[in-house]
Amino acid sequence: MDLTAGVRYAEELYSADEPLEDVLASIREKGMPEISVSPGYGRLLTLLVRMTGAKQVLEIGALGGYSGICLARGLTEGGRLLSLELREDYAALARDNLKRAGFEACTEVRVGDAREQLDELIREGRSFDLFFIDADKVYAPDYLDKALALAKPGSVIIGDNAFYHGKAYNPDNQGPGAIGIRRFNERMATDSRLESTLLPAYDGMTIARVKG
Ligand code: SAH
Ligand code: MG
After folding, report:
1. According to DSSP H, which parts of 30-139 are helical?
2. N or C: which end of the chain has fewer CB within 10 A?
3. Which residue has a Cα nearest atom 17 of ligand 1?
């Protein structure tokens, strides 16, 4: 990660987080993409779950379980995390890592395309208190629509990689992922149902609250 001096200063204040370091090592060992959420935003995920008292948490994009552990750490009695992941092998590692971190009982990782899984959750009439949207950026706007269908007043919606490694604000980049994350960020900023902010450290993160 290319850290600015401010981010490096902030990271140095925190001691090493061994369970999360183990997750990063397991991802590296398997040759999986090293795109887990940044440590500072991982800590923020824990805080947001804890501060909102969220009981039903939904993650879109599990990878190796790094952000899943951060979300699960914030859960209180009776809280649950459901994580959606396209790839069976990634889901298996995420389950292993969540178990190793002590969160097997309060977490579930489901395999399949997130758009279909979200539609299924909508059909089931489910609702969630907090969403972490962090899968393929092409479909980020669709994930937001479906999250809104699963949300209630006061629910929190978080989007990772608002800058998409710089592609979001490079107008020459008209790739589908760049277009997707731009639309997502614009929707988070302007949708009348949401109040939100964009945190510009690391790779950017958007946080919104559903009004009402
Ligand atoms: N949230 C993780 C990182 C997720 S990386 C963390 O911070 O620890 C993005 C993940 O989204 C990858 O694991 C990828 O396999 C998954 N993904 C990509 N397309 C998807 C889709 N259509 N449905 C569900 N998951 C998808
Ligand atoms: Mg991410």
Report:
1. 39-52, 66-74, 88-100, 114-123
2. C
3. 135
